[in-house]
């Protein structure tokens, strides 16, 4: 299994490039449709988008093995929350990719009896659940870092004393609540600014979330918005491949 995992990892960059091109086509198609482009031009854009999607499915063949290996590694993490979130995320990603492989076989003509709609809905359900778990992991990491920052030297020093004085000066409950929210927001922004990998992962997962929500009919978005979200998350993924230090580590 290890040689195939290494091959899948090498294919990841190409798959991300095709993904960016696919959602770029979706965004361009929506813009052309809004500007009254001819039916022939729109059909060509849709055809190119379909070819890019099929090419991505080909590059993702066997990706389930990589996801299962990642799940096996996540089981041994010492942090219980991270262990639960990452293991569950990788298992759902493995199921999503398995469904995706079935879809590829159907679209390539190898398994013409495959119910494309059923398997597509099934794959997007696994994809959605994996994203929700990923966002839960991001929220947990963010909360841990915020607590660590709040208990650190900076809030114990001058800034901490200033905040204490501000709290004492607040006379009403609403003022205290507003001040507390303001301090929490500043802390949140400071933590995200000092942790680019977490910020990129949070943005990427948030952008990706709208894709399965739209495909499953849970939250309808315009084709342009879905294309923009897919393109943005693809660019962020490419950045983490080009600069590995930007990838969020367990």
Give start-end ranges of low-pLDDT stretches. none
Tell me, what's the shape?
A: globular
Rounded to the nearest angstrom, the distance between the terminal CA atoms is 23 Å
Strand content: under 5%
Instruction: Please state the structural category.
Output: mainly alpha
Number-wise, the strands total: 0
The ordered string of helix (H) and strand (E) elements is HHHHHHHHHH
Helical content, roughly?
A: over 70%
Return Rg in Å.
22 Å
**Biggest sheet record:** none
Q: What oligomeric assembly is this protein in? A: single chain
Helices, by number, come to 10
Number of domains: 1
What's the rounded overall pLDDT mean? 88
How would you portray this structure in words?
- The protein contains 10 helices and no strands.
- It is mostly helical and 250 residues long.
- It has one domain.
Summarize the structure.
This protein has 250 residues and is mostly helical.
Keywords:
250 residues, mainly alpha, 10 helices
Give the topology, please.
Elements lengths: L1 H33 L4 H21 L3 H12 L5 H28 L8 H35 L2 H4 L1 H12 L3 H21 L2 H20 L7 H20 L8
Helix pairs in contact: 1-2, 1-3, 1-10, 3-4, 4-5, 5-8, 5-9, 9-10
Keywords: Membrane, Peroxisome, Peroxisome biogenesis, Transmembrane, Transmembrane helix
Organism: Aythya fuligula
GO biological process, one term: peroxisome fission
